[in-house]
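TA notes, week 10

Several of you asked for a full example with nothing omitted. So below is the full record: structure tokens for the whole chain, then the designed sequence directly under it. When grading your own attempts, check the secondary structure regions first.
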């Protein structure tokens, strides 16, 4: 069974991720940085961690990073898109509603 060190989200190159005690990646959210936005294109959570809020923690982390960098987010990843459009606290970060046509 994989156990991530909860709440220990690390910053990598164009991603945020979590590792287990063996330093194996157990969850990640990836993005492509552009001039004024981050294109969130992938979210992964290990089966053993699904349903525990890890995916939402990752979305929140990239949202905080975007705010700190004064950038918008284009969520092309289906999970990130769902979370960001359903939760009011992220709506101000969404670049536009035509992102599916652009990516």
């Amino acid at each position: 069974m994989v156990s991530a060190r909860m709440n220990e989200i690390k910053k990598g190159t164009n991603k945020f991720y979590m590792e287990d005690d063996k330093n194996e990646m157990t969850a990640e959210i990836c993005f492509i940085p552009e001039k004024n936005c981050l294109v969130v294109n992938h979210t992964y959570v290990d089966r053993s961690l699904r349903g525990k809020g890890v995916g939402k923690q990752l979305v929140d982390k990239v949202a905080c990073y975007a705010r700190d960098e004064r950038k918008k987010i284009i969520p092309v990843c289906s999970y990130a898109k769902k979370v960001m459009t359903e939760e009011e606290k992220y709506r101000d970060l969404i670049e536009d509603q035509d992102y599916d046509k652009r990516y």
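Residues 54-68 form the longest helix (15 residues). Use that as a sanity check on your answer.
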